Task: inverse folding
């Protein structure tokens, strides 16, 4: 296991560590730009909603889904007001957050393989009741499995928006 870097002890290693952080940031930025370019065909209000969800940064890191869900709900309600509701039931479907009565938002995390399977089944059910489905996943535990899952979602359900946090 790699040792944790101790800042301030050695200026040379501090510089090298900053370079590693910058490189990781470039990879994340590249993925973000690719996702944004793919969303150019979305309606303006939906692009704005997705951009706001991507910009959402909770004050504290959530270890469970409910606190993250509550903070995201409050953030979106501050942006969109009464257009944002929590856990609206339609048929047997109850997404975590609904915006404009047409966009279902499902929050999952920490995200393991079980949560990814749950989201896949919810996509099928929620598409019957909502025009758009947005999935917010935080604390992804297995990045390799997630990338494979995401490729499958993009191939079979290209209209679904997945936002990894």
Result:
């Amino acid at each position: 296991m790699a040792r944790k870097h101790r800042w301030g002890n050695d200026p040379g290693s501090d510089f090298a560590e900053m370079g590693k952080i910058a490189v990781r940031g470039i990879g994340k930025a590249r993925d973000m730009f690719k996702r944004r370019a793919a969303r150019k065909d979305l309606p303006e209000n939906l692009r704005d909603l997705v951009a706001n969800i991507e910009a959402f940064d909770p004050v504290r890191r959530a270890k469970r889904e409910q606190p993250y869900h509550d903070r995201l709900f409050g953030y979106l309600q501050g942006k969109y007001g009464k257009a944002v509701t929590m856990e609206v039931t339609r048929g047997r479907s109850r997404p975590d957050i609904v915006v404009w009565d047409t966009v279902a938002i499902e929050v999952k995390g920490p995200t393991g393989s079980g949560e990814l399977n749950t989201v896949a089944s919810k996509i099928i059910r929620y598409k019957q009741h909502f025009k758009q489905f947005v999935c917010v996943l935080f604390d992804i535990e297995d990045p390799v499995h997630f990338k494979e899952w995401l490729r499958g979602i993009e191939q079979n359900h290209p209209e679904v928006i997945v936002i990894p946090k």
